[in-house]
Amino acid sequence: MLVLCSCTGLLALMVGVQLSQRLAGPIEGAITAEETITARLVATGDASQLQAPGRFGSGPRFHLTATIVEATSAGMRFEADTPVLVLGGPDWSGVRYGERLRASGKLVRADPGQAVEALLIASTEPADRTAPPLDAWVSGLRAHFVQSLAPLPPDARGLLPGMVLGDKEHQGSGLEDAMRRTGLTHLLTVSGANVSYVLGFVYLLGSAVRLPRWLKAAAGVASLAGFVLLVRPEPSVLRAAVMGSIGVAAVLSGRRRASLSFLALAVLVLLVMDPWLAANYSFILSVLATLSLVLLGPACSRWLQRFLPVPLAHAVAMPTAAQVFCAPVIVQLQPELALYSIPANVAAGPVVPFITITGMVGTALLPLLPGPGTVVLHAAGWMTLWVAAVARWFSELPLAAVPWAGGPVGAAGAAAGGLALLWGIRRMAADSRSGTDRGTEAGPPETGTGRGHSGSGARGPILRLACGTAVPALLLGAVAGLVASLLVPGSPRQSWDVAACDVGQGDGVVVRTGERSAIVVDAGPETDMMGRCLDGLGVERIDVLVLTHMHLDHYGGIDGVLAGRQTERVLYSSAKEALPEAVHASLQAHGLAAERASAGLTGSSGAADWTVHWPAEDSAGLSENDSSLVVEIKLRVNTGGEVRMLLTGDLEQEQLPKLTRYLGPDFTVDVLKISHHGARNGGTALITDLQPAAALISVGAENDYGHPAAEILSALRAAGVQVLRTDQLGTVLLDADHGRLSVLTGR
Hints:
Blueprint: H1 2-22, H2 27-32, E1 36-43, E2 48-49, E3 62-73, E4 76-88, E5 100-109, E6 118-122, E7 127-130, H3 133-148, H4 154-165, H5 173-181, H6 192-208, H7 213-231, H8 235-253, H9 256-273, H10 281-295, H11 297-304, H12 310-333, E8 336-338, H13 341-348, H14 352-365, H15 370-395, E9 401-403, H16 407-442, H17 456-487, E10 498-500, E11 509-512, E12 517-521, H18 527-537, E13 541-547, H19 552-555, H20 558-562, E14 566-567, E15 570-572, H21 581-589, E16 594-596, E17 602-605, E18 608-614, E19 630-636, E20 642-647, H22 656-663, E21 671-673, H23 685-690, E22 694-697, H24 710-718, E23 722-725, H25 726-729, E24 732-735, E25 742-744
Parallel strand pairs: 4-6, 12-13, 13-14, 13-15, 15-16, 20-21, 21-22, 22-23
Antiparallel strand pairs: 1-3, 1-5, 2-3, 3-4, 5-6, 5-7, 8-9, 10-11, 10-24, 11-12, 17-18, 18-19, 19-20, 24-25
Helix pairs in contact: 1-9, 4-15, 5-15, 6-7, 6-8, 6-14, 8-9, 8-10, 9-10, 10-12, 11-12, 11-16, 12-13, 12-16, 14-15, 16-17
């Protein structure tokens, strides 16, 4: 207890010291006042592109971490040591780790608990760019690495930089989704496993040439230093180096207790160096994965060896142990379980060390022997196609990504499933042992050496036990999590930002504005469907209810929307003077009045800003469909960027020229709600003009209208737009966190 209190006090002291250093001097006042400053910066990461456009200008936006070392504000120059996240335009795309540069921009305070103190929204391009010789050489080598992969297939060009250098910028969205759905994303992050492969290779190479122990240790340290320099000495990489070294020590020494002590010491040292790692999911997962290797890996391997060959038992034990320890945390990031994560990791695992080692050898050869180095890298690239094939094959199987609860309920469900799996494996091992013992008493087995997996007499009980205990136990944990996801209000998918509810042949879009509040656009055709969707999303307060027009498939579920929820404002449009009686009665019953809206009306709700762009005030005589409200919603995300949506009701193509003139030539969106459920009369002009990243089509399965029309789908494919249909996915959830627009599994 005394040691624990001492460690806690030390961490608290370090947090206080580092906070005082980060905000010492005038920089604190500049952040509070959101001043525009001119700063000298040191880049602590490479620039990467935001997947969703920022709200600070049109066109692509880039972000990187940096440290302000000097700043000028209000004519006063001062020194600082303040970590910031820089947001800039295309001119920032080439900034690399270690560069020193100068730029001007506006400071905005970051959310509490972040590793950075502020956002620096750059208003100028980076100037006076210089880099230390070593950092410049490493950046050039990394660029040469990527360029040398040009002849390889796209999947190889996307995977190899990630698996060797931790550079995930080159994979396509389809491959990225497949890796996520199969639990293979960790292969694209520099982790302790990468470090283990490098150190293990150096150790085996040293043993092969009979180097003394001290020289092998020195070679290992030198290789580790080179590896860290190549993949960038960022906190995550330094963490991986420490964790990987501990993993190798655990494997080579077999001293589990000592490894556990070293792990605890490493975690303490890393937290003292950077206390903000405690809130970093990557750090938490790294610690848990290493802990699983130390505590559970050997035991799980012994159990599996009772009925599997030793190499296969080792291969299965590592991802199984990691899954059990990490799943409760993973569901907080992505509220789903990758059902085939273990078999996918087992299938991909054998080639991963060869890819890592071959890739590192090829990288080392590039500066000295570019030709042979490129050949070696291509060999590694072709091996990555096996990983891509495994990811794509498993991701296309039924229930590849099972919807799961977030929060404490989801974590408990994932832990229950993991414990059930371990219980089943141990029971199988016990049954195999008892079966072998019985066989020994009765006489020698027909074949084999007495191991459970070798005798035919042992296979029957093992298979029966697998079907009778392990599988039902695992399914029980899965059912518990699924029930929690469906029944606990607000627990499913804590990270969702936009939902297109599955309301059949109708519209119902929900944009999250707070923990339990949202903007709701249309109510679908039936009370129960929209009400259940909002209940499942945990929406208790409606900041704005928008009824785009007065057709039943857009207002029919209004009672379900309003029931049990606090509603602040109701907007509508219609070609008629009076509201339908059902709408009027429902609003009156809840003490609400509806406000007719038209172009130019704006407002804000939590993290969302909304603007009505249609109908114009002079739009008298329009049909009911053409009187639909067209609403733009800008959803601010925590990096300072935003996701822009355009919801178009049932607007038809005849009015699109007027609408596009009103929007202007520079208008862009990330998500377009396709008009009229994808009907042909919605036209394709907005698709071709706006070039959105994703398109929502709210449409009923096997509807009688032929929605969505083939012409609309063809236009979307031609424009490269990701199509999200409620008839295929159910309720579609989008996550706009951290400047990325991610599609979560439909429910």
